[in-house]
Structure formats: C-alpha cells, structure tokens
Fold this sequence. Notes:
Layout: H1 3-25, H2 34-47, H3 64-79, H4 86-110, H5 115-126, H6 129-135, H7 141-160, H8 166-180, H9 187-199, H10 203-228, H11 248-252, H12 258-261, H13 272-281, H14 292-298, H15 300-317, H16 321-343, H17 361-374, H18 377-398
Amino acid sequence: MRRAELGAAALIAALALVAGWNAYRYPSGAGYDVQQHRAYADLLIHHGEIPSSGTRSEYYTPPGFYALAGAATLVGEHVHAGDPHKLGQVLNLLILLATAGVLWLLAVELFPGRTWAQLGALAFFCFLPVVLRVAAMFHPEPLSMLLTSVALLLATRMLGRADHRWQLAVATGVALGLAQLVRAFSLWTFAAVVIAFAAARAWRPLIVVVLATAVVASPWYIRQTIKYGDPVFDRPTKSEPIWERRPATFYVGLGLPDVFTDPIRPHFLNRAIPTTYSDVWGDYFGVWRGSRERQSFLGLLPTLLAIGGWLLLLARSLRSPPRLAVALLPGLGLLGYLYFTVSYPTPDGDVLKAGYMLTTAPAWAVAFGFALDRLPGRARIAVAAVLAASVVIALPFLLY
C-alpha cells in the first residue's frame, strides 16, 4: 500500500471513530427538524404514505432517505427497541464513510500523483464541522451528498478518460436522479454535470445522463406538481419581487465582532455571510455543544484556502471539462443557496443553514486540497502543521 493510501486509510479511520462516537452520543431526538423527519420515516415505512401539507411536515421533501431510514428504524424496533431511530443515525454514519471513500477516489482521479491535493481534500472533509454535525443527526442531507458525489466521480471518469459508454452515462444519470429523490438541493450537482458534458461536446452521453435522471426523478416532480402546483418547494412566500425580499444588510453584513465573540442565534440575525460561516465551522442554531467562539477563529485559514483553491481551480478548469463539474459545483451551490434563502425569508433566519449546501462539501474539499498542493514547499508544510494543530484543538467540539 502506497503512502498516500495509508494516509487516506488513517483519515477515514479517524473519521469513523469521531463520527461513530457522535452517532452513539448524539440524541436521536435532537437536530434540525428531527420530529418531522422521524414522523415522515415512520409514516412511510409503517403506512406507505407521504405526509400531507395539512400538517407541519416535510411533505415537500422526496421520500428517498425516509424509505432507507424507515427501514433502519424498523430493524431498530426489533434490535434496539428503546430507541429505534438510533439506527437512522447509524445509517448516516455508514453513508458518511462511503462518501469519504468516494471523495478519495475523486481526488485521485482529478490529481493523479498529487499526494498533498488528495490527502488535503480528504482531511478537509473528514474534519469539517458541518459535515460531522449533520451526519450525526436523523437527517436526509448526507445521503444526498453521497449520491451526488458518486455522480461527480462517474462524470469525472467519463470525461477524463473519454469513456462514453452508455452504461456509465446511465449510472451517472441514475445517481443524479436518486439524489433528487432525497433532496432538491442536489439539482446544483445535476447542473454542474450537464455543463461539464456540454463543454466537452459529449452530446450522446449527455443525452443519456439527462434521460436517465428524468426517468428516475420525474415521477416525484410530476406528483408534486399535480398535488401542490410546485414540483420543488411548495411553501408560501412574499408576493413582492425577489430583489426586494431581503435588505442590503442580508448580503453584505459581516456580523463583526459577534461572529467571533458570540456566533450563535440571535446575533447577526438574517445576515447571510456570518450566519453561514458560523454554521459551517460552529453551531449557529444551537443544536451542538462546545466552544463556538474558538471554532470561528479556527475556521479562518481553511476557509481562505478553500475559497482561493476554488477560484484557482475554476480558472484552470474552464478549458478542462473533466475537472469542470467539480470546479463549478461550489459556485452553483452558493447561487442556489442564495436564491433559496432570498426567496423564502423568515424572521428567525431558519433558512440560513449551511447544511443545505452539504452536497457541495466534497467539491469544497477538492478545492482546499488543490490550494494546499499549490503552496510552495516550506509554506505548505507550515500551513499543514497549523491545520493539523487546529484539528487537535477542535476535537472537543467535533466530538459530541
């Protein structure tokens, strides 16, 4: 086994320990909208029904995760009757580890022979607080992240190796379609993959990918359109133009100094930048525990590296379709997240959850690894040492 593979195995083993502890310790009844998620899974698995809009429910969310989590809960009723939903958290643990493995393969595909880029991407993902936090919950977002990561890997291999077999195109489309049967936020990945194939002028596999995606996902969208008149998100919102729904402070407010001294709601309420940053590296909505203030400081360096790496990767990938899907995803995710949070403003800022962009986490990890690899030799070692120390300092927060 090569040194890079040993490093990857060590990182995934560390992720398994941290995430496994969190799945064990984090209450199954805690987390974002957990009562609605558990009720959906129970209703689907026991009665074969999807919640209706007449109740406070996740009726607008596709049933993919709830079918799997409901099956896990059903098993839990027999083997862990005191808390059967705990097996839904175990399911997300397995999904998280699988995503880490897919990300490793993706990084190797994108950066052959570049050990710093490969291991840097994997390390960023394994110790990203928002990933560990959401994966500890009974929540659909990790499954969506896994499926979109598989689609990214397949698309990257097809374009990088000029392997346009229809079987691979179908597999890519099925992965994208299944992701849309989990969360609509996976549409960003679909757009990135479509643009990458179009840029490569790979028209036949593109058509197959789109058709396969449509075959898998369209029944859900058709059902929602017929039943509620909106295929994606049937929720009431303001009737005014979208550009008038948020004040200027929503877009440019930095929340200083509270983003470092008190990064939890209701501070800098409905300020997109500090809320999202605090929720990526800390716990803005108060569903975790630990020093949020320390996390805000620890997140500065990796954030700068990830953003810088993304911009550089995007610039280098505009004429390189194999990298383009991954390079586009962070930007498309930010645009989609911005559109969603502007379209559906809430007084408590509840829509500004970084977990809604979880499908972009692997792409951000790749961007971080790319940035780390581009640093000069001594600077790279120094930065890596600082980042490793940051992980050690953050461990009390990363472990619930």
